Each structure stands twice: as C-alpha cells, then as structure tokens.
Amino acid sequence: MAQRDRFSSNIGFLLVSAGCAIGLGNVWRFPYITGEYGGAAFIILYILFLMIFGLPMLCFEYTVGRASQKSISRAFDVLEPAGTKWHFMRWVGFIGNFMLMMFYTCVAGWMLDYFIKMASGEFNGLDTAQVGGVFETMLANPGEVVVWTIIVCVIGMLICGFGVNKGVERVTKFMMCALFVILLVLVVRAVTLPGAEGGLAFYLMPDFSKMFANGPAGFAEVVYAAMGQSFFTLSIGIGSMEIFGSYLDRKKRITGEAVNIVLLDTFVALMAGFIIIPVCFAYGVEPGSGPSLLFITLPTLFNNMAGGRIWGTLFFIFMSFAALSTIIAVFEEILAFFMDIGGWSRKKAVGVNFVLITVLSLPAILGFNVLSGIQPLGEGSNIMDMEDFLVSSNLLPLGSLVFVLFCVRKNGWGFENFLKEANKG
Q1: 67-105 pLDDT, tens per residue?
Q2: What backbone phi and psi angles, to 5 degrees, belong to 253?
Q3: pLDDT, tens digit, for every residue of 128-158?
Q4: DSSP character string of 88-114
Q5: Cα distances (Å, whole numbers) of residue 353 to 75, 176, 236, 339, 348
Q6: Residue 1's pLDDT band (boundaries 50, 70, 90)?
Q7: What is the DSSP letter of 265?
Q8: Residue 213 phi/psi, 5° resolution?
C-alpha cells in the first residue's frame, strides 16, 4: 500500500484494539474458569500474570507493528538484521489467526443463533433438560450451525471490506459502546437479585486454600490456567494485535495505549463475572460448570427470572458483540497479511478469505455431529477442543516468546531499537 491506513481518532484505535482483546475469552471463558478455580484467589493470580506477561507482550506486538508499518506478514522482514530468519515467524501468525477463526466463527454463530432463539421466546417454559436438548439439537444439526457461521463470516468480511476507517473503526466503535452499556445494565440486574450476595462474596473474597485443595499438582493447574487466560484474553502472540500497532500514529506512547487496552479488557472480564457468578449463586447453580453454563444453565435461569426473556436477549446481544468485535479485528489481520505479502486489493482479499475461512470452519462444526467419532484429545473431546488447545496452549505462548526474543536479542531487532520506537510520542 502506498500509504498506511490510520485510525481517524485515538478512541478508534482504543476501541478497535479493545474489541480484539475483549471477546469470548472475557465473557465466556473467564467467569467459568474463575468459578472452577476458586473465585477471587484465581482473579488475583490472573491479574498478576496480566501485568507480568500480558502487558509487556502487548507492548512488543504494538511496537513491532508501528515500527514496520506492516502486518505480521512483512513486519519481521522490515526489522530483522540481514541474513537472519525471523521472518519465518509470519507463518506462526498466519496459522494461528486462521486456526483461531476456524472455531471462533462457529461459536459466534452459536451466539447469534441463541440471540434469535431467546428473543423469539423459544426457551419460554422449558426446564434445564429441555434447554439442554435445544443446545444438543443445534450442535447435531450441521446445516443450522453452518448457516450461522456463514452469517458471521459475511458480517465480518463485509465490515472489513469497507477499510479501516469506514468499516472496522466505525462499526467497532458502535459495537463496543453498545457492549459497555448492555454490560453495565446486566451487572446491575445480576447483583441485585435475591441471593446474589453469596456470589459476590465468592467473587470478591479470596480463599487461597481452594487453590491448594488438590495439592501441588492442583496449584500448578490453577497457575497454568491463569497464565493461559492472560495470553488468550489479549489475543497476543499471533499478530492479531500487531496489525493495529501498524495503524497507530507515532504521536502516541505505546506503553500508555497498551495499559489502556489491558485495563479495558480486565474491566469487561471482571464485569462479566459480576453478571454470571451472582446469577448462579442466586439460583443455586455451580459457577464452574463449564461452557454448558452459557448455553444451558443461563437460559434456564433467565426463564425463572422476572423479565427473563428481555434480560436473556440483552445478554446474547452482548455476547454476540463481544465475539464479532474479535472476529472483525482478526479478519483485518488476515486481510492485511494477503494485502502486504501478495499485493492484493482489499476486495480480492475479502472474497478469497471469506471462502477460505468458511470452508476451514467446517471441521469444528462437523466435529459435533458427522465427525463426532474423531476425538483427538481423548474420550469426550472433539475437533474444536483440539483447535482451541493448539491456539491457546501452543501458538499464543510460542508466538509471544518469539516476539520477546526478537525485540530483546542482538541478532533480532534489538532492545535499544524497541525502546526507541516504544518511547516515541
């Protein structure tokens, strides 16, 4: 590109970057693993890892992006010393972003589907078993999930097709503002439910004994979960955030911008917990019951709540916006990869990648029905579990390590060059 795209305002950069970070990792994964690993004690550990790992990693990605003015496809080529091979990192980012979208678009489709089901009153009068039946029927019907996944891909690619300013920035600003409003409304409703006090105590009062309840191995599991969540929640390590550094004006100090993103991301994660955990305690439900909490337990609870259809509809709008904001951001990184490395027009990149991502999403969708016999991580697992494991537990931390080494080693970009660029503004 002759001239690199720019955000029209700093608030645009902040909300788009936050939109990439604020996704299902915050509003789905964070509350249930917090419940699973002991509430407030886990939150303290998680925030510690965010400060130690998440914030510095985010600074590294932003700085590489702004210094190179390229996506991850060309960033290392521009900054690496002659004769080195750091540019091979582009393929970690390429594979990571595609693999993330291979299952993320599918789950976003579930959110939109549930928004329609909740708004139309499909869950009215159903008990827990019947709501579970709706979820199982949805997963067993590949046609239904494929349609919603295609809708998600159409929305994301259409928005990205209008470019950074008129598409990504404009739409994400609206979605993030709406997300924050809905989030606060739902928090107020959740914490004022009769019986919510137990959930607030569980969420806010640390009990470190729960972290050691299963001995050293159990504590190690909690530590690993907190560290993994700190990577997953910020989408760091595969260039999803690096691309927005390449659109960032050099008048802005990178550390300050990164701190703002981490604070926003953490705020949404904590607020999501203030919605889900008090509701669970108010109705006597185990808050650590896993992903089924979102698609089975919560719709059942909304059925038993005054005005539950309205609150449930708002909740799944909130979840849909959270998922779509991340998808739009990652789609932009994928499109920039093809535009930077192949010289493609944005229109061509949108068309080709719409087809690619739609087709690559099929294994995760079919893993719940046609391909349910494939259990790559052992009995009870599915293809989506494997894709999530490869991205969350392998590519994100591996990619983050490469970014760190590239920015601090003399045979990489070097720490002095990193500090010079990071401190501009």
Answers
A1: 999 989 999 999 999 999 999 999 999 999 999 999 999
A2: -80, 125
A3: 889 889 999 999 999 999 999 999 999 999 9
A4: GHHHHHHHHHHHHHHHHHHHHHHHHHH
A5: 21, 25, 22, 11, 8
A6: very low
A7: H
A8: -60, -30
**pLDDT value of position 2:** 47
Stretch (H or E) spanning 153: helix 142-161
* CA 2 – CA 20 distance, rounded (Å): 26
* Cα–Cα distances in angstroms (integers) from residue 423 to residues 12, 78, 414, in the given order: 21, 20, 14
C-alpha span between 49 and 28 (Å, rounded)? 19
Q: Which residue has the tokens 């087809």?
A: 355
Distances 89 to 70, 98, 388, 405 between C-alpha atoms, Å: 14, 15, 20, 11
Which of 298, 288, 105 shows the shortest CA–CA distance to 186?
298
pLDDT of residue 289: 61
Positive or negative: CA dihedral 337, 342, 343, 349: negative
Q: Which one is predicted more confidently, 290 or 140?
A: 140
Residue 359's CB is within 10 A of a number of other CB atoms, namely 10
Q: Which two tokens stand for residue 201?
A: 């105590």
Radius of gyration of the chain measured on its C-alpha atoms: 21
Report the candidate in 353, 300, 294 with the shortest Cα–Cα distance to residue 105.
Answer: 353
Q: Could you give the C-alpha distances from 169 to 174, 228, 311, 347, in angstroms and in order? A: 9, 28, 28, 18
For residues 39 and 341, the answer to whether their CB atoms sit within 8 Å is no
Residues in the chain, overall count: 425
DSSP for 314-344 reads HHHHHHHHHHHHHHHHHHHHHHHHHHHHH--
Query: Residue 402: what residue type?
Result: V
Summarised one tens digit per residue, pLDDT across range 224-251 is 888 888 888 888 899 989 988 988 888 8
List of residues 6+ apart from 301 with CB closer than 8 A:
279, 280, 283, 285, 308
- The first and second tokens of residue 172, run together, are 């994400």
407 vs 417: CA distance, rounded Å = 8
Q: How many helices (H) and strands (E) does the chain have?
A: 23, 0
Tokens 């004006």 — which residue? Answer: 249
Residue type, 193: L
Query: CA-to-CA distance for 113 and 148, rounded, in angstroms?
Result: 7
State how far Cα 214 lies from the chain centre.
29
